[in-house]
Amino acid sequence: MANAASYPEFLVSTEWLAHHLDDPRVRVLDPSTLLIPVPDNSSYNAVPAREDFDKGHVPGAAFVDA
To answer: How far is 28 from 8, CA to CA, in rounded Å?
Structure first.
Protein backbone atom coordinates (compact mmCIF):
# COMPACT_ATOMS: atom_id res chain seq x y z
CA MET A 1 0.00 0.00 0.00
CA ALA A 2 1.32 3.43 -0.92
CA ASN A 3 1.70 6.22 1.60
CA ALA A 4 1.29 9.98 1.26
CA ALA A 5 5.01 10.41 0.58
CA SER A 6 4.47 8.43 -2.64
CA TYR A 7 2.20 11.17 -4.00
CA PRO A 8 3.73 14.53 -3.02
CA GLU A 9 2.00 16.32 -5.90
CA PHE A 10 -1.32 15.74 -4.11
CA LEU A 11 -0.21 17.30 -0.81
CA VAL A 12 -0.66 21.04 -0.38
CA SER A 13 -0.42 23.52 2.45
CA THR A 14 -3.52 24.93 4.12
CA GLU A 15 -2.55 28.34 2.76
CA TRP A 16 -2.46 27.01 -0.83
CA LEU A 17 -5.81 25.30 -0.34
CA ALA A 18 -7.41 28.44 1.06
CA HIS A 19 -6.37 30.30 -2.10
CA HIS A 20 -7.67 27.57 -4.42
CA LEU A 21 -11.02 26.54 -2.89
CA ASP A 22 -12.90 28.12 -5.80
CA ASP A 23 -10.71 26.47 -8.46
CA PRO A 24 -12.90 23.95 -10.33
CA ARG A 25 -9.81 21.81 -10.99
CA VAL A 26 -9.25 21.24 -7.24
CA ARG A 27 -11.13 18.46 -5.48
CA VAL A 28 -10.79 17.86 -1.72
CA LEU A 29 -11.57 14.35 -0.46
CA ASP A 30 -11.96 13.55 3.23
CA PRO A 31 -11.39 9.87 4.12
CA SER A 32 -11.50 10.44 7.90
CA THR A 33 -11.69 7.22 9.88
CA LEU A 34 -11.96 6.55 13.60
CA LEU A 35 -9.83 3.75 15.04
CA ILE A 36 -11.77 2.15 17.88
CA PRO A 37 -9.62 -0.13 20.09
CA VAL A 38 -10.90 -3.69 20.44
CA PRO A 39 -11.04 -4.66 24.13
CA ASP A 40 -8.70 -7.52 25.11
CA ASN A 41 -6.99 -7.28 21.74
CA SER A 42 -4.22 -5.23 20.23
CA SER A 43 -6.23 -4.33 17.13
CA TYR A 44 -8.66 -1.64 16.10
CA ASN A 45 -11.98 -1.43 14.30
CA ALA A 46 -11.91 1.18 11.55
CA VAL A 47 -15.14 3.18 11.47
CA PRO A 48 -15.90 5.91 8.91
CA ALA A 49 -16.07 9.33 10.59
CA ARG A 50 -18.98 10.57 8.51
CA GLU A 51 -20.68 12.11 11.55
CA ASP A 52 -17.61 14.26 12.23
CA PHE A 53 -17.47 15.24 8.55
CA ASP A 54 -21.12 16.30 8.69
CA LYS A 55 -20.35 18.55 11.69
CA GLY A 56 -17.76 20.49 9.71
CA HIS A 57 -15.30 20.12 6.86
CA VAL A 58 -13.35 22.03 4.25
CA PRO A 59 -15.87 23.90 2.05
CA GLY A 60 -16.61 21.86 -1.05
CA ALA A 61 -14.97 18.70 0.30
CA ALA A 62 -16.49 15.29 -0.34
CA PHE A 63 -16.53 12.47 2.20
CA VAL A 64 -14.95 9.22 1.04
CA ASP A 65 -15.75 6.00 2.87
CA ALA A 66 -12.50 4.19 2.28
So the answer is: 15
38: region left, alpha or beta (phi > 0 left; psi from -120 to 50 alpha): beta
- Contacts of 11 by beta carbon, 8 Å cutoff, 6+ apart: 4
Q: Is 57 exposed, middle or buried, given 0-12, 13-18 or 19+ CB atoms closer than 10 A?
A: middle
- List the domain boundaries for the chain: 4-63
Question: What is the rounded distance in angstroms from the CA atom of residue 33 to the CA atom of residue 48?
Answer: 5
pTM above 0.85, yes or no: no
Q: What is the mean pLDDT of residues 8-25?
A: 88
